[in-house]
Amino acid sequence: MKKAIPIIISNTNILVYSESEDQFKAFTISGTDSTPNIPFYHIYAKKIAESQHHFKEFFKKLYPNKSSRNVFAIIVPDDTSPLESIFINEFFLNSGTCKAVAQMHMGQAICKDKAQYVSISKSIRNIVLLYIKNNEIKASRFYSLSNYDAERIKQDAKRIHIDVEYDSTPVFVNNFNMNMDEFFEMGEIISPKQFMEKIAVIDVEKI
């Protein structure tokens, strides 16, 4: 089993776990303006070589003795599309910092000791409900931030999958981006600190 270096794609930056400091360090590119409803890394695609060079230099400061044979465990927002997932993987694979990547959604990483659960999170464009069973996404629902009914989402969480309707299923509120106040009553709240502690010990076998 290869130990992986955890990486979190947040709503605003890339967080890389520093083993020597036992904490996540933020990677951003100065001058990169955010655009509403568009993940920040889309801008990296417009200047891909430059962005990858900056990331490689950033990574070398955290792991000066690590070779390019690293494995990255990448945690992405719950509404990351298949095409975005491909870009994220390729961004790291072609940056000269790793030889392999494994990727999972935040909702899949939020709990390690429950066989099934529902997670709710908020990206920069959607509120996302996921039903997770045995680490696989079995059902999902997306609600645009520009037009949603919080009460409807709370009710949908109770019937997102037939398993949930007929079995007691815990709900985890992913407050990683500190933006879930109106959904706190739905279940167990996961703070940024709690989430990062879970991810800091992740390995490829878990993904």
Structure description:
By secondary structure, this protein is an alpha/beta fold. 28% of the residues lie in helices and 28% in strands. The mean pLDDT is 91.
Strand content: 25-35%
Structural class: alpha/beta
In percent, how helical is the residue content?
Answer: 25-40%
Largest sheet: 5 strands, mixed
Shape: globular
- The helix/strand order is EEEHHEHEHEEEHHEEH
Which strand order do you get reading across the main beta sheet? 3-2-1-4-5
Low-confidence stretches: none
Amino-to-carboxy terminus distance:
12 Å
- Rg of Cα set: 17 Å
Tell me, rounded to a whole number, the average pLDDT: 91
Number of helices: 7
DSSP summary, beta strand count: 10
Give the gist of this structure.
The chain is an alpha/beta fold. The chain contains seven helices and ten strands.
Structural features:
207 residues; alpha/beta; five-stranded mixed beta sheet; 7 helices; globular
Task: Write the SSE topology.
Blueprint: E1 5-9, E2 14-18, E3 23-27, H1 41-46, H2 48-62, E4 71-76, H3 82-93, E5 100-105, H4 106-109, E6 116-122, E7 126-133, E8 136-144, H5 150-156, H6 162-166, E9 171-174, E10 188-190, H7 192-200
